[in-house]
Amino acid sequence: MFDSLRARLYRLGFNLFPAYRRTGGRVTYIAPDWQEIRIKLPHTWRTRNYVGTTFGGSMYAATDPFHMMMLLKTLGDEYTVWDKEAEIRFKKPGTETLYARFTMTDQELDAIRAELDREGTDSIDRHYTVDLVDAEGTVHASIRKTVYVTTDRSKRA
What's the superkingdom here (predicted)? Predict the structure, then answer.
């Protein structure tokens, strides 16, 4: 129950944090184990561009922090995680509310730990893609993030 409350407080914190709030996006769900996050990006006067579609900067910014945050929360303090690069591909103009669902599986987390446990591996880059979709599931943009992960072996048990 405490983890569930903590996840709800993080959701509230994201939605009130000025840098995220200005993206126009809203976090609608954070799983207690941080392995799923859902957001929505309403099509409003604040997120519309000159031609009346959802501003690409809002699309990107609303999805920006979540893969890094998920890894920070699920891997633990002995790992350092940074966003390294990003790419966005626009597929269809957004004229309605868009949604994104981020997931991080146990298999992915185990693969990261295993790769960093190998002798001679100091850091790795992981690639993640999330789609911004409308209510019918039509993809409007795909965002691909590269996340850098390293470990401080002295902090590991």
Answer: Archaea
CB 56, CB 24: distance < 8 Å? no
- pLDDT tens by residue, 79-109: 999 999 999 999 999 999 999 999 999 999 9
Domains and CATH numbers, the chain: 1-151 (3.10.129.10)
